[in-house]
Write a structure and sequence with these properties.
With 224 residues, the chain is an alpha/beta fold. Helices cover 34% and strands 27% of the residues. It has one domain: Rossmann fold, CATH 3.40.50.300. It binds adenosine-5'-triphosphate (ATP) and magnesium ion.
């Protein structure tokens, strides 16, 4: 269960999130809202990448401020821009880095990497240079790097923004099959049916909270 209590976040002079209090027990939560409404900021709070100026963010029994390391282990985070995620020059090295940092036995690495790549349609790409991949391929590598660690919670910031239709569908099927709790920000309203509950952010607050159909109607109406 994700639990926020009176969470305030400022960046520079700007109040980015203002007094959010919400419990998210659902396994599939979607986040929509205009550019700059606070989606990425909210997502970053959930794995402790950002800490609130005031209030608490809890993931199960963990507090993001007090238990940062444990939170980052429990919550896999996919950045809006995959270049923020990938640190090693080759695909295989990058995936191995995650496994090492999670203390996965070295003998398991090659098989787990091969499996994670195959599941993303990237078989045999271990030795490819990341900077030579397309944007969508990089996003899929970043996703593989997270799923390979089997986190309990997956927070995804616009994971389909760079993907074509086939890869978008494949990604959503992959996510549907995950045991993890999923929180995903998206501008693609056609994906909302994958969620049980959808939050719509406006100016750093949750302006709508409800079922996918109603969320879509609300958002379209607001932008009419
Ligand atoms: N490091 C920062 N310094 C100052 N302001 C910031 C910083 N990061 C974010 N902001 C501001 O916080 C607000 C929310 O940004 P955020 O990235 O959370 O929006 P978003 O809903 O994810 O938008 P998008 O749909 O464009 O990804 C914006 O007004 C943005 O300018
Ligand atoms: Mg964003």
């Amino acid at each position: 269960m994700i639990r926020l209590r009176d969470v305030w976040l400022t960046r520079g002079e700007r109040v980015v999130l203002s007094g959010l209090t919400i419990d998210l027990p659902e396994r599939r939560v979607g986040i929509i809202g205009a550019n700059g409404s606070g989606k990425s900021s909210f997502a970053r709070l959930l794995n402790g990448l950002l800490l609130p100026d005031r209030g608490d963010v809890r993931i199960g029994a963990l507090d993001t401020r007090a238990d940062g390391r444990a939170v980052r282990r429990k919550v896999g985070f996919l950045f809006q821009n995959p270049d923020n995620q990938i640190v090693y020059p080759t695909v295989g090295e990058d995936l191995a880095f995650g496994l090492r940092s999670h203390k996965i036995a070295k003998e398991e690495h090659a098989a787990r990497i091969a499996e994670a790549l195959a599941a993303r349609g990237l078989s045999g790409m271990e030795d490819r240079l990341v900077h030579e991949l397309s944007g969508g391929q990089r996003q899929l590598v970043a996703l593989a790097g997270i799923l390979i660690l089997q986190p309990d919670v997956l927070v995804l910031d616009e994971p389909t923004a760079l993907l074509d239709l086939a890869n978008t569908r494949r990604l959503m099927r992959t996510l549907d099959a995950q045991a993890a709790q999923i929180v995903m920000a998206t501008h693609d309203l056609s994906l909302l049916d994958h969620f049980e509950r959808v939050l719509c952010f406006e100016d750093g607050a949750i302006a709508f909270d409800g079922a996918p159909d109603a969320a879509r109607r609300y958002y379209v109406e607001r932008n009419a």
